[in-house]
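User: Before I run my own analysis I want an independent prediction to cross-check against. Here's the chain; please return only the structure tokens and, at the end, one sentence I can use as a sanity check.
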Amino acid sequence: MSLDPAAPGDGVLEFLRERHLATLTTLRADGSPHVVPVGFGYDPDERLVRIITIDGSQKVANATRGGRAAVSQVDGGRWLTLEGEITTTDDPARVAAAEAAYGERYGTPGERADRVALEIRVDRILGRA
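Assistant: Structure tokens:
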């Protein structure tokens, strides 16, 4: 079921605040999917998924090329996929926002000097929450 990213509903937003791991799908240079488990935060006002990771990872390489990505979480019959354009950033303020979003769902992340953030500007939400 397709949901309105501008007004996904209270059930969707609650599901996105619960502690669930997800998968991030990005595309390698050859176009094949790269799928990895991640924790993420979602800002409904900005329609922005934030993911912390380390510089030099395959997901960072894929995001640096731009394009689309999807993050999906599943809990029994409930599931959501958030899709949109992906970018990577090492801007300290944006990385701090991603760390804070992660911390709200999963607990404070450990310190990393090589941390960067991935951001997905959500333009499509699919699922059933």
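Sanity check: Residues 2-128 form a domain with the Pnp Oxidase; Chain A fold (CATH 2.30.110.10).
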